[in-house]
């Protein structure tokens, strides 16, 4: 009820369009009837965070945000949200170089890639909260960090790490990954490299929706040197 009141009395609208939101909403609804709900990881903390959390009432929804002051601002008004400050190690200006060179590091390749503690791979997000590494995520929304100026972190690491976590899944089912702002070069390039066109099941507006199977549950993702 508090979420309804919040949006009913606010002039601020979510960052995504209604059509884009509906894609993720439909997937969240599919597991809302289970006893545990969904494990939902969201890169980004915004005006839509209360909405995402309310769509997953029985599950665990965790938000990752690059701006510590913004985390404090949001949690002041919505203290029940699970939000963490994350410091990213990359800059958008490095995107082309990271794409050119990642195959030269074995621990960036599918056969050996992992996220937690993987300091050998520059694309692996090694500074995330422990909870992120401990859980297996049913849904991952990538709508951050910022990626529209050279010094911004860019979403290269988020896309790569989401792909690696999805491939490492041991729970039944696939990992649903939603990537926003695919009208931009870097998001599109890294999605095609790590999330794969063959796993793209829906494109609405600036949102792409992927279903990524785990390496344990299918031979389709068992390439040692290619994600796609």
UniProtKB/TrEMBL annotation:
InterPro entries under this entry? IRX15/GXM/AGM (IPR006514), SAM-dependent_MTases_sf (IPR029063)
GO cellular component, alphabetical, reads:
Golgi membrane
Q: Does the keyword Membrane apply?
A: yes
The lineage's top-level taxon is: Eukaryota
Pfam families documented for this protein? IRX15_IRX15L_GXM
User: What membrane topology is annotated for this entry?
Assistant: Single-pass membrane protein
The protein, known as: Polysaccharide biosynthesis domain-containing protein
């Amino acid at each position: 009820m508090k979420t309804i009141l919040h949006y009913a009395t606010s002039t601020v609208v979510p960052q995504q369009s209604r059509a884009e939101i509906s894609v993720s909403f439909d997937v969240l609804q599919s597991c809302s009837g289970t006893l545990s709900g969904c494990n939902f990881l969201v890169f980004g903390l915004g005006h839509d965070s209360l909405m995402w959390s309310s769509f997953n009432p029985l599950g665990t929804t965790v938000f990752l945000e690059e701006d510590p002051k913004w985390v404090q601002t949001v949690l002041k008004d919505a203290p029940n949200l699970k939000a963490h400050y994350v410091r990213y190690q990359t800059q958008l200006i490095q995107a082309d170089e990271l794409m050119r060179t990642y195959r030269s590091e074995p621990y960036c390749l599918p056969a050996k890639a992992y996220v937690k503690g993987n300091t050998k791979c520059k694309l692996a997000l090694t500074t995330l909260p422990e909870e992120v590494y401990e859980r297996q995520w049913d849904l991952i929304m990538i709508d951050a960090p910022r990626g529209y100026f050279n010094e911004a972190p860019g979403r290269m690491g988020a896309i790569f790490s989401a792909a690696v976590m999805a491939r490492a899944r041991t729970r039944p089912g696939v990992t649903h990954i939603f990537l926003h702002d695919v009208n931009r070069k870097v998001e599109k390039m890294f999605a095609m490299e790590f999330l794969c066109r063959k796993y793209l099941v829906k494109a609405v507006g600036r949102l792409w929706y992927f279903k990524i199977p785990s390496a344990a549950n299918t031979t389709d993702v068992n390439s040692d040197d290619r994600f796609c």
